[in-house]
Amino acid sequence: MIDIRNVSRTYARGADLVHALERVSLRIPAGRFVALMGPSGSGKSTLLNLLAGLDRPDAGEVVVAGQALSQLDEDGLAAWRARHVGLVFQFYNLLPVLTAIENVELPLLLTSLPRAERRRRAATALDAVGLAPRAAHRPRQLSGGEQQRVAIARAIVTDPDLIVADEPTGDLDAKSAVEILTLLSELNRAFEKTVVMVTHDPRAERFVDAVFHLDKGVLVNGGPP
Amino acid sequence: MTYPRLVLRNLLRHPLRTLFTTLSIALSIFLVCAVLTLPAALDAMFERAASNVRISVHHKAGLTYWLPFSSVQKVRGIPGVAGVDHYSWFGGIYDEPKNLFPNFAMDPDDVEAVWPDYGIDPAALARFRKTRNGALVGEQTMRKFGWRIGQEITLRGTIFPVDLTLQLVGVIPAASGNPLVLWFNRKYLDEAMEGRGGFPRVGMIWVRAERPEDVPRIIHAVDDLFRNSEAETAAESEKSFYTSFFSSFRGFIRVILAVGVLVVGAVVLIAANTSAMGVRERIPELAILKSLGFRRRPLLAVLMAESALVALLGGLLGAGGAYGIFRALGAAGKTGGAVPFLGPLGAFRVSATVGMEGVAIALLVGLVAGMVPAWNGARLNVVEALRRLF
Amino acid sequence: MAIPLAYNVRSLLVRRWTSLFTLGGIALVVAATMLLAALVGGLQQMLVSTGEPDNLIVLRKGATSDGSSQLSREAGQVLRTLAGVARGPDGTPLASRELVNQPFIRTRAGGRENVLVRGVEPTALAVHRAVRLVEGRMFRPNLGEVVVGRGTLARYRGAGVGSQIEFGRRRWTVVGVFDSGGTAFDSEIWADVNDVQNDTRRDGYSGVRLQLDSGADRYAVVQRIASDGRFTLEAKPEAAYYREQADNANALYLLVLTLAVVMATGAVFGALNTMYAAVASRTAEIGTLRALGFGRGAILVSFLSESLLLAGAGLIVGMGLAAIAVLAINTLLSGVQFSMMTFSVATVLLRLSPGGALLGGLFAGAIGVLGGLAPAWRAAHLRVVDALHRA
């Protein structure tokens, strides 16, 4: 499903050049729940950005579900993301001025669905993460775990092929963290969504099918945990 | 790290924002200065042109009523009178109607006695007395049309059925307070009018008293002289004359000033906004500073100083700009006639006083705008703020 | 698809004080602009009567207004009897020979002002068709009777039907009030021209108004008058005359425009500050939206809309403020006194016009666009990856 071939990415930080990724190759079959792990600065977030279409490699090829991302321009990537990828971030990244259900509805605005249909699907997604009663609440009225669940609902509302999560449990307490990991795992199993997760969290290992380790921009080892 | 340096660093932290705020204030103060020139011009007119020894004598019924020529000699006879000159509005047009400037027929021989404070060059006065069709012109009018001494100009009559060709022999300095007027010899007008029934009348009489204390007495004496005659007079001090003359402008100026107030209000809001933004962003820093032991008052001072400094810079820029731009326009003769309605007020002279008023307003704006955000910032509860940080 | 406007509205509401202050700044600029425009509008209204389509105004050649013109008794007589001049039902020519004077008059408040007294013939009401008597009757000649314009009633001592009014060398009796539809005539006093000549010890007139026959060749009459070698006169259609008067007010409009541009520029900087701050504080949101798939165009439009929303709200408040100010000035101060270079004073009522509102709207729009464009551009061109990690 995901085919990463010989990908390198370097960027400038001040006067220095940081080689985030060096000739990394990786394959993830469809329907897997995969973790990318490694110390800080290992390049795992960079790799995640590349396969989510948020960034472009300096060298190499990223192919997701048959689409070579290099063939898409900026606007094309945006459209592709909207259709094929669901994003979950460490700090939830919900729009504070929108209610829970409005946040979930956001990605649907990029489709041509009529308003009633959008509302219906958003409600369904919110229900799937167990937060239907909190639909009209704003993010500041929700706990960390609840906000992340709203974010996950937003990630699945367009029925994407791929869910990408960047440190989804990084800001949560132990109980909420486990809830989120469980939820992701359910999504993976019940709906056959490919899930790629960057994480520090050692608890993640028992939820995933495979773990890839990165260090200093290089894939160290990868395979079932 | 000194306090002034802290202030400066903070301002440079967001250079664009500081620049925008400064420019915004500068533009508004520029406007405020332009607006302030109007009442300042009115006052200047009274200060300079209205000496405290000159008296205007006109017909009781109005300025459009003539006084008989013989009145002039009668007024001369009043004790305490240092000089008397008659003054008749000709209302001639030079070139285009919209270039209207005041022009009067009068007696060149009496100019020195009645207007010694105008500072007219004695040589010019001598020429004025000698040249039959000579004319003295106010500096501003001279500059506006680009005239030169020795040049001949023609004034087309409006209320008089004659056109007059005059030779410019001298300048009335702008410092006199009467920079627009043109004076020519009344005898020249008499000659022109000879074939049309003559002109044995004057519009007004100007009197100069020997001492300021004599003014009230002379005023009474003049009116007594002509009471119950064909032409009853209403004499008044020059100040009083100009005050009534321009009183009609006051309403208009009040509206313009109201606009100025609105502009200042807008500036206060913009400056306050900037100040508030700055403080809000620096809550974590302020919390840390306070936790380190910095006390409330110095912090308040720093925050107020930032706001005041930006406003001051903007004020200097705006007032300076107004001074420079209007001065240049004035030198090029572009002001004065640009807005015919305002007449002499349209000169937009930005004096040093007006400039300082502008800067003072800017400073006030800075202090007012900075007050509430600075107070909130300094008063910050350290624990509360630090909690928000972590 | 676009980012919903509700996002922008709520974002503005969340940053309550900043939005309010910026809105206030814009509102004041709009109010100031509209106030100035109302002043000029009132002036124009006063100056520009459109004039009667069939009327000519005859003045001394080169004179700018009938306050600064002079023509002789003989000229007046000749003009009156010109071919082409219409005649009333009783055969009198519809010509109004007029003598304009500016005597002092006492105001009700105790001050002294110049008032425009127009010495006219009884035919004046027929010639100036827009002027109507609304109270009392027209004066009879040679009796020291006058009719006063509506605008004088509140202002001058003795201005009321039946009372005596004092100006010039004598007292006059007010026998009627006229209305001219808001033009400058409303501030005038009309008296018999002979009485005015006596009072000012003058012979002759300031100007003559002629009403032409509907079939008359207007240009031929104008030519006749101009080519008469005995006098130096110039005739022009009233409409043209008033249009020239209006040019003076147009110069003022230019001044207003300049002032407004300067004010608006100041406000633009204020808006820029606000919008840049908004973008800076919402970097994470912007990154999220882009990550979700909203294109750069959508972000640009969204932030630009936010700026325009703010400006729009400022416009509405500003219009309200201007309306209140105009109302206050007109009712409490009964307008603004204005003197033209002919020394007489007229009261100008401030007039809010659609033109003024349009001007205000234009400036609010410009402030919204100029204040929002650069920040919106920045927002749209944030690097997604950086924006997300700015959280």
Question: What count of structural domains of chain B?
Answer: 2
Shape of chain C: elongated
What general outline of chain B do the C-alpha atoms trace? elongated
Mean pLDDT of chain C: 87
Structural class of chain B: alpha+beta
Alpha carbon gap, first and last residue of chain C: 25 Å
Class computed from helices, strands and strand pairing of chain C:
alpha+beta
> What order do the helices and strands of chain C follow?
HHEHEEEEHEEEEEHEHEHHHEEHH
Question: What share of residues are in beta strands of chain C?
Answer: 15-25%
Roughly how many Å is the radius of gyration of chain C?
29 Å
Q: What helical percentage do the residues of chain B reach?
A: 55-70%
- Strand line-up of the largest beta sheet of chain B: 6-7-5-8-4-3-10-1-11
Helix run count of chain B = 13
Helix content of chain C: 40-55%
Low-confidence runs of at least 5 consecutive residues of chain C: none
Overall mean pLDDT of chain B: 84
Provide the low-confidence segments of chain B as ranges.
Answer: none
Summed up, the domain count of chain C is 2
